[in-house]
Amino acid sequence: MDDLTEMLKGTLEGCVLEIIGSEETYGYAITRRLNELGFADVVEGTVYTILLRLERNGRVQVTKRPSGVGPPRKFYALNEAGREELAKFWAKWQYVSSRIDRLKEGGK
Amino acid sequence: MNFWETITGSDLTREWKAFEDRAKALPDEYRAAWEEIKGHLFPHGDFTGRNLMPILDSALGLLEETAADGQSVHEVLGDDIRGFCTALVGGEGARTYRDRWREQLNRDVARKLSRLGG
């Protein structure tokens, strides 16, 4: 599906939190995971800026590990604040999606 | 950073040189992207550009990591380098020309008003 980017904007951070929450991982792997899910427009730069923001806001724990080639990779894991943020994200998502579904069904 | 460096910006010159050396080691298409990134980030600089240094460092870091992976620049940055740069500076505390103009305007207006009042 094309042109999902605008719609995704507010939720991408939550998606990234969820991916990091399931296992410690790095930027490239997160991007690939999102691409596999069908978010083809998401590039590594997008994920990178989200990761920077999460790091700055103290939601993740960052570990540098040497990689086979080139500079060391940064691995991300959720800390306590990150887990709280993720729980909040799912609560908000639940709220929004249930309202939108209701709207679509023409219900009250 | 010592006083001399603060005044002369000599530490910045040195940092710039280090950035450019790192950029030189990148593949061609990455180097082109680096030039473009710098162009988009400069307007967000403060008087000396010091506030951009950590941002440029992280952008260059991403280019280095992904170039080493053998990814194409397009895979990494997509079509929207400007958007990438905006996201990089967003919330980073980097201010734009526009913020400074606005401040200057407010200051001037306040001064003129106080002169009228006094």
Automatic annotation (TrEMBL), chain A:
Pfam annotation, one family: PadR
Domain Transcription regulator PadR N-terminal: 16-88
Organism superkingdom: Bacteria
Designated name of the protein: PadR family transcriptional regulator
UniProtKB/TrEMBL annotation, chain B:
Pfam families for this protein: DUF1048
InterPro entries: UCP029876
Gene3D superfamilies assigned to the protein according to its UniProt record, in alphabetical order: c-terminal domain of poly(a) binding protein (1.10.1900.10)
Name recorded for this polypeptide: DUF1048 domain-containing protein
